[in-house]
Amino acid sequence: ARRKDSRKGRNIEVAMPMSLEETLENQEKEITLEKLVKCQRCQGSGGEPGSKIKECFTCRGAGQVQQVKRTILGSFNSIVSCPECMGEGKKPEKPCHICSGEGRIKDKETIKIFIPAGVDQNQLIKVERAGEQGKRGAKAGDLYIRISLKNHPVFERRGDDLLMKLLLNFSQLAAGDDVEITDLSEKKFILKIAPGSEPKKMLRLSGKGIP
Predict the structure, then answer these.
(1) Average pLDDT over residues 102-113
(2) Contact 53/118 with Cβ under 8 angstroms?
(3) DSSP letter (8 states) at residue 153
(4) Where are the alpha helices (DSSP H) in the chain?
(5) How far apart are CA 127 and CA 144, in angstroms?
(6) Are 134 and 8 in contact (CB under 8 A)?
(7) Beta carbons of 189 and 181 less than 8 angstroms apart
(8) In whole angstroms, what is the distance from residue 184 CA to residue 205 CA?
(9) How far apart are CA 40 and CA 125, in angstroms?
(10) Are the C-beta atoms of 171 and 75 separated by less than 8 Å?
């Protein structure tokens, strides 16, 4: 069976609070995370600068060793990751004194996130290789941004549509009226109320919702 790379960095998921107004246009935001990043001294190799990366003596570079377990039913052979090199098949001759041979250290990193217009509640945005750094130069994990939309005092979002309540008096419903409305982008326009309109009637305005 194909071995899973145990050195790969961990994926990270963080919540990104956003207002409903921000979903109208593309956004570029920055977040600062404390995570495992590449060691700058050894550049992720895990070895002191100038030292060699040698084949593991225990597994002869295979990254796996055979393990024998004896039970009352007999002996069972299994293949496990080499405990000496942690399945890598090689190890630095002289481990880096900053990261202790890991090739990564704990530090803060600021990451720019592009968020497209129209994102919705709980939507995930993937940023490849922006998760935690893998061991000794292995592939980094991914960063997932989960959108968390704040409640709006006027508008309620349903899919890409916006709903709002419009309070009118009886004479406006009976005789009709021109009412000034402010949309989510704070643009004002006139909404025509037809004479004889019923309460709870739904009026549809095309193109005024979420992109």
Answers:
(1) 95
(2) no
(3) S
(4) 170-175
(5) 6
(6) yes
(7) yes
(8) 13
(9) 28
(10) no
Helix (H, G, I), strand (E, B) or coil at 178: strand
Show Cβ contacts of residue 171 under 8 Å, excluding neighbours closer than 6 positions: none
Is residue 8 within 8 Å of residue 138, measured between CB atoms? yes
Residue 25 near residue 19 (C-beta atoms within 8 A): no
114 burial level (CB within 10 Å; 0-12, 13-18, 19+): exposed
Cβ-contact 172, 179 below 8 angstroms: yes
Q: How far apart are CA 82 and CA 88, in angstroms?
A: 8
Instruction: Name 194's bridge partners.
Output: none
- CB neighbours (10 Å) of residue 73? 6
Angle ∠(118,193,163) on CA atoms, nearest 5: 25
d(CA 162, CA 157): 5
Structure token digits, residue 145: 């941004």
Write down the pLDDT at residue 6: 64
- Say if CB 147 and CB 120 are below 8 A apart: yes
- Tokens standing for residue 142: 């991914």
- Name the residue among 138, 136, 139 with its Cα closest to residue 103: 136
Ranges of H-type helices in 107-211: 170-175
Q: How confident is the model at residue 10 (pLDDT cuts 50, 70, 90)?
A: very high
